[in-house]
Amino acid sequence: MATAFVARRTLLKVGLKAGVGALALAAGGFPAAFAQDKRLRMYWWGGKERADRTFKVNELYSARHPGVTIDGETLGWGDYWARLATQAAGRNAPDILQMDYRYIYEYARRGALLPLDPFMSKELSIADFGKDAIDSGRVDGKLYGVSLGLNSTAVLYSRTAYENAGLKPPTHETSWAQFAELSAELTKANKGAYFGTMDGGGTETAFEVWVRQRGKSIGWHSGTTCASARRAFRPMCSRSTATATRPRCCRKARRRPPSSTRISWSATRRSTSTSSA
Q1: pLDDT confidence of residue 228
Q2: How far apart are CA 261 and CA 271, in angstroms?
Q3: Span 201-257, pLDDT tens digits
Q4: 68 within 8 A of 61, measured Cβ to Cβ
Q5: How far is CA 62 from the centre of its chain?
Q6: What is the pLDDT of residue 140?
Q7: Cα gap 68→51, rounded to integer Å
Q8: What is the end-to-end Cα distance of the chain in Å, rounded?
Q9: Residue 178 has what pLDDT?
Q10: Other CB atoms within 10 A of residue 14 CB
């Protein structure tokens, strides 16, 4: 499982209606023509600590660029996307927003985000971010966001539990099949007091690692269908029965997002297609 590393990408996006002013903000500087009496809306998710830090950074920017005011809006993850979808459909999207890689493809392909390529190496100087970080903000070859950071996935285990069972814990060289067998042995050794591994069926990262190791990727950014994703994951589902934990991802139920999170893209496109940028 040593190769099972998946980057979790969070990006700063610029709404299409914002134009050059917001682009320059993301880049760290305003052209002279946009430096007077500009008010921008910035929207992000997160807790109080992130909100406090972001508001302070915005204040520092405004102090350095008189005449530029940044109005911040923030919500928790659970409510963030419903409001963004509603605002986009209502032609009232923020100028600068935080975007997750699960959604960037849809928003970009619907014309709701402004490509940043014309500003690269000029107002937008991010060459030292590294190619992988920069490319994480690309959709269909165009840059729509600036990476705020990359995270990786890890597997944690109890060394004591394995020692008490007389088993060797997993290593970086352990395959998924070996891990399933080892987990079953651990479950048996402790006489069912606890399972050898958690039910990863609702864990998106485990699913993505498995699919990527087989040369595919999650459907929201590659066009992978639900059926093909299930086929890729089926071997893991069959092995999971040995640990008495059948992942929820093995179920064939397909859910549609709540209506509040769906976007009326025809309205959004009309509201954003007239940008002077």
Answers
A1: 58
A2: 18
A3: 777 777 878 888 888 766 555 555 556 556 655 655 555 444 444 444 444 433 443
A4: yes
A5: 28
A6: 92
A7: 19
A8: 46
A9: 93
A10: 31
Structure-block tokens of residue 257: 């997002």
> Which neighbouring-strand residues pair with 249?
none
Enter the tokens of residue 77.
């993850």
CATH superfamily to which 8-150 belongs:
Periplasmic binding protein-like II (3.40.190.10)
Question: What is the DSSP secondary-structure string of 86-106?
Answer: HHHHTT---SEEEEETTTHHH
Q: Give the separation between CA 253 and CA 250, rounded to whole angstroms.
A: 9
Residue extents of the structural domains in the chain: 8-150, 159-250
The mean predicted confidence, pLDDT, of the chain is: 74
Instruction: Determine the number of helices (DSSP H) and then strands (DSSP E) in the chain.
Output: 11, 7
Give the C-alpha separation, 56 to 72, whole Å: 10
Handedness of CA 267, 273, 275, 277 (dihedral sign): positive
pLDDT, position 154: 83
Q: Which of 226, 214, 179, 219 is nearest to 198 (CA)?
A: 179
- Which residues contact residue 240 at a Cβ distance below 8 angstroms, ignoring those fewer than 6 apart? 180, 201, 246, 247, 250
DSSP state of 120: B
Look at residues 141, 96, 89, 129 and name the one whose alpha carbon lies nearest to residue 110: 89
Extract the tokens encoding 241: 């029965």
Question: Can you tell me whether residue 78 is helix, strand or coil?
Answer: helix
Please check the confidence at residue 142 and state whether its pLDDT lies above 70.
yes
How far apart, in whole angstroms, are the C-alpha atoms of residue 220 and residue 81? 15
Token readout for 1 is 């499982």
Which tokens go with 178?
A: 């070996």
Do 17 and 96 form a contact (C-beta atoms < 8 A)?
A: no
Residue type, 276: S
